[in-house]
Structure prediction request, 485 residues.
Amino acid sequence: MKISARAGIAAALGIALVAGGVAAALRTPGPATAAGFMTDEDGRSLVQHGFSTASSAKSTPDGFPEFEEEELDVEYSDMGTNFVRFLISWRSVEPEPGQYSEEYLDGVQERVDWYAERGYHVMLDMHQDLWGSAITPSGMSGNGAPAWATYLDGLPVADHDMWELYYLEPGVIRAFDNFWNTTGAHPELAEHYAGAWRVVAERFADDPTVVAYDLMNEPYGGTVQGPAFEAGPLTTLYQEVTDEIREVDENTWVCLEPQAMGFNWGLPSGLGRVDDPREGEPRVAFCPHLYPLPMDLGDGFSGTSRELVEGTVAAWRSNVLRTAERLGGVPIILGEFGLDTTLPGALDYVDLVYETADASGMGVAYWSRDPGSWGPYEVDGTPRNLIGALDRPYPRAVAGELVGWDSEPERLVITVVPRAAGAAGSSGAAGSSGAAQVSEAYLPSDAFPNGGEVVGGEAVEWDAATRVLMFEIDPGATEVVITPR
Ligand code: MNI
Prediction:
């Protein structure tokens, strides 16, 4: 990969900033784990394991990923996923101002149903990178926003080899400044964006498979950057979109991303709290991304890069937990991390990220489900090395108060807040159905061919076809340990 002098300087600056972030993280230890989880109808804590599906949706004319139903069966059988961060786009929902595409929403529904039939949950991700495809005449660079919402005001957008550098182009910065109304010229754009979300929420409000809306992929502030952007226009937009969604949908979680630049590298966020107008407990979550800077620059996880990346992951974790606490003790889903797994040490990095997410109580969506060097399969469908790293034991649903878990190839340790005998979550509690007290863990076939032995609880049922173990947790237990039987 060719790296320009400007990128080199940006990189050096970034590394200095990240090093500063690490020092800050070590000085002020924050919360150790997420304070909340999304829950199912029975109140069980849900853990998400899956992919962002898929990058190909950014550029297909119909806005759908190049992904077929059969591929979902293959994915389940290879990795036991239960979740997808499914890419949708503003350009597809609202192709002309105020005109919404029912045909597109039908297509999204059709795909959501594939997941529903297999017991998955879906988070719809309103994706954008570099604003939209209308930033250049070729349409080859950005994605997300419709052409009619793209106001470059005559400013140039030069071509680059490294895609991130388009973010520094005057025309792209202006497109964002118009959206956030920093220019004062286009207050209608954010209203349209919230309106597009309302239409999506109207469609999926009563669909139990769609559990969350990721309100904006990798937000970028144009000329307003960092905490000024996050605490200002970004928090304001999230509040407006949340209010609009709640007019039609009281149930689905809204998931907030921080500014991508900086946070993805381990720096803190200035995102403000969003109030959920729904009745009852708020359903707001935090969906950050993780892309350590040395890896953006094409390094693997070895040598000097390995130490910088380890420092980044530690700083990122503490900033994620601190931000989630500030947002109200909200659930966390790592919405994107990923890398070219042909790089040295790549699978060790994947392990490190899962260990970090597991110990902190975060769901994970790997970037991405596309074939090729970052993905689980080659273009011809041949399985890649990533599969072994992603096919790990994990708790899918836990009855009771989940804290975190530790997943080794032949051992899954689930940490919970102990409950008293007879309290909600115990088997045979008066007046509640048996099903609500059962927890579920996914156990890979290689290490757990016959299911699992449970210490700190009791195995109830092993489904050899789905490789899901149902189990109950003993009253008073702080830990459930599952090993192969
Ligand atoms: O790493 C980034 C990223 C770097 C820099 C910037 N700015 C300069 C604003 C923004 C974002 N993004 C990583 C991944 N995110 C997209 C999809 O959301 C993936 O294609 C990237 O690999």
In short: Residues 55, 129, 164, 167, 217-218, 220, 260-261, 264, 291, 296, 336, 367 surround MNI (CB under 6 Å). The chain has two domains: 5-391, 399-485.
